[in-house]
Structure formats: structure tokens, C-alpha cells
Amino acid sequence: MQRLFAAHDRLHHLPGEFWVVRCAACGLTQTSPRPTGEALAAYYPADYGPHRDAGDESSGQEADANPRSRGWLRERFGSRRIWWTPNLPPGARVLELGSGAGLFVRHALARGWEVHALEPAAPPAARLARDPRIHVHRGQAEAIDVAPGTFDAVFAWMVVEHLENPRTVLRKVAAALRPGGYFVFSVPNAGCWEFVLFRSRWYGLDVPRHLWHFTPQTLAGLLGECGLRPERVFHQKVLRNITGSLDFLGRDRPALAPLAGRLTRLLTPAWVSFGLGAALAVLRQGGRLTVVARTPDPC
């Protein structure tokens, strides 16, 4: 393993130092040491953003996760770079891993699908269970236990990088899908310029909650190992990683804080954000990826 740099929890300022390391053989980058079990659970405090109620505007998650919240420009041109959904008929059976506040669950219900939500954290799972239309499964993704061929599609938005055992989960996902079924997910892109430039200050790093730091190449290898065929990779047109990284830079280097603040304000207008995000997506240098994979079709 090659040590790249040391990092710590910048989001909640919880103790611990971690190394970001890269496998010399396969190129997969990961957090070391990787906390597990109760040690890992401690890094998901009660105010962890994705677990907050979707009605709590202070969570700041809906703006990134829900394309409709970013206005007409984002809805018309950028939404598929965040959520991509296959054209499944009403009644299709779908599962979301790590449903959190339930933003995507609402989207799936609106399409008339039979929605299953797997959520390990108790408060968001309890909120989801209030809606009788949602089949809530409480537990870790590694514990998925369903009959083969149960689902038409499985979704996981910014979840795979959190998994203790992604190979185990992806193999179970492949088994749970019907032939030709979809696995659609998003992850931060450690193969882009942001990772190289910001290093330990990269907003997409989020150690130690993010145990794995994927590139398009390492994702393709992992999916293939697990019986899933990658079909499409979208570079999302969002700049949240950049503005978040500039904020971390300003905190670390007070002398650079005014410059970081000006750059953030420059990137804030919708037309600037969309234009730069679109350019980075075209160059395949977006900081977040949406991946569409499928199980083999028997035909």
C-alpha cells in the first residue's frame, strides 16, 4: 500500500487520524485504518446531515440530492447527472440502500413503483416506516437477505463509499436483481483533479465515513468482479466538492480565507455553477459520479 496523505474528520471534528492509501496492484484507494462496527458508528452522530428529516432545511442535503430544488436550469439540463432512473413500469419493485431522509424514496413512489428502503440508522428508518407504502428494512447493507431476482432495480446514492465490505454488498445486489436488472449508484470521484489538488482538504474525502475512494477504473473492476456490467458513467454537474474544499482550505490557512471566500462567491450563481459543472462533466472531471450497471440478460 502506498501512503498518499493523512486526514481527519473535518465534518464533525471527531478524534482520530487516518491515512489515505492506494493499492499498488489494483489502484484502489482506501482509508486506513478502516474503523468497523461500533467504532465506525460513532462517526455518524445524531446531527449527521443525510440522516436528518427531509423537512429540516438546515440539513443542506436536499440541494445536492434533489435536482428539482435547484431550479429550472438544473431540472432541464442537469438532473440526470444526479439521479438517473430507468424507464420501469408502475409496480416495478425497487430497493434503495441507505435511504436516509427519504428524498429518493419520494421520487420512486411518485413513479408508482413498489419501494423498499434499507436504512441502518434508527431515526430515519422510523420516519420512513410512518408511510405504509414504503417497505422498510432496518440493517446494514451487508445484511441484505432477499430471494434471488427480487428487484427490478437497486439504487444507492452516495452509499457505496461508506460500505465496510463493498464486494459482499455488490454480489448480493447482483443476486437480488432480476436478469437485466439495474444497479444505479453515485460516489465521489477520486479520479478527478479535485482529489489531486485538495488532497486531505477534499470535501469528497470525508474520512473516516468514506472508507473507499473510487475512480471510474476501480469501479469498473469492482463491478465486474461482482457480476455487474457497467453501462454508463455520468459526471455530475455539481460544484459542492469544490466550494466545500475551498471552505476547508480557508479554515486551515487563514491567510487564504479571503481568496477562498471570493472564489466560493464567484461559483455560487446558478449560471456559473452550471456552466463550470457542465464543462467539467464534458472533460470527465466531475467530482461526483453516477454509475449505471446491469446484471446479464439471459438473451
The count of strands amounts to 11
Number of helices: 11
* Rg result: 19 Å
Mean pLDDT: 89
Q: If you had to describe this structure to a student in words, what would you say it looks like?
A:
Helix 9 runs antiparallel to helix 10. Helices cover 32% and strands 23% of the residues. Strand 5 (114-119), helix 5 (122-128) and strand 6 form a beta-alpha-beta unit. It is globular and about 55 Å long. It has a 7-stranded mixed sheet, sandwiched between helices. With 299 residues, the protein is α/β, with parallel strands linked by helices. It has one domain: Rossmann fold, CATH 3.40.50.150.
Task: Describe the structure concisely for a colleague.
The chain is an alpha/beta fold and 299 residues long. The chain is 32% helix and 23% strand.
Helix-strand layout with pairing:
Elements: E1 2-8, E2 17-22, E3 29-32, H1 37-41, H2 62-65, H3 71-78, E4 93-97, H4 103-110, E5 114-119, H5 122-128, E6 134-138, E7 151-157, H6 166-176, E8 177-188, H7 193-198, E9 212-213, H8 216-225, E10 229-235, H9 240-252, H10 257-267, H11 270-282, E11 288-294
Parallel strand pairs: 4-5, 4-7, 5-6, 7-8
Antiparallel strand pairs: 1-2, 2-3, 3-9, 8-11, 10-11
